Amino acid sequence: EAGVAQSPRYKIIEKRQSVAFWCNPISGHATLYWYQQILGQGPKLLIQFQNNGVVDDSQLPKDRFSAERLKGVDSTLKIQPAKLEDSAVYLCASSLGLGQGGSSYNSPLHFGNGTRLTVT
Amino acid sequence: SQQGEEDPQALSIQEGENATMNCSYKTSINNLQWYRQNSGRGLVHLILIRSNEREKHSGRLRVTLDTSKKSSSLLITASRAADTASYFCATVLNSGGYQKVTFGTGTKLQVIP
What we know:
A: mainly beta, seven-stranded mixed beta sheet, four-stranded antiparallel beta sheet, B: mainly beta
């Protein structure tokens, strides 16, 4: 199966500019995640979609970050305006999500290679 | 916020030796997963252990889980230079119809040929 696709691979912008990242998850995966990974740290969840609805955006800085998942497939994450502390790798991941009919199973996350953002 | 704290933060061993990484977490979980991240790449899933399991094996990997102590360990036996990477534990809690996945701080492993 094709993996999670992300673009661009690298992006350098000046502070106060805007930037957008794109993610195409694995076909059939209901859940899509955006994580922020600062150098030397573990990934931190920014936003999680189940199909095209947001289920968790508690750690998303909503004054500058926004995300959408059109038709429950592709997703874009936008930062406007960017700050120096936004320099990080932005990782997109997808998973099958929970099972149907009330049952649940636990599916691993599949990650893209990320977008490395440098804000100068 | 980071759910898991990993120990050690960095580990350097000779090829052929075993590597052990530990993960401690704070809240209830449904399962715990381990991931590997090579430099400049995304994370790759290694192994999943459910909350009612105590030990699981996959190839050269052995994972243990102690829910009473809220801790897990990952053992890589007979390490190879290709195992050089960062390793992350991730706790999973099924809540409100979705999986909440929280990553730890990671252990950076260097295997010297």
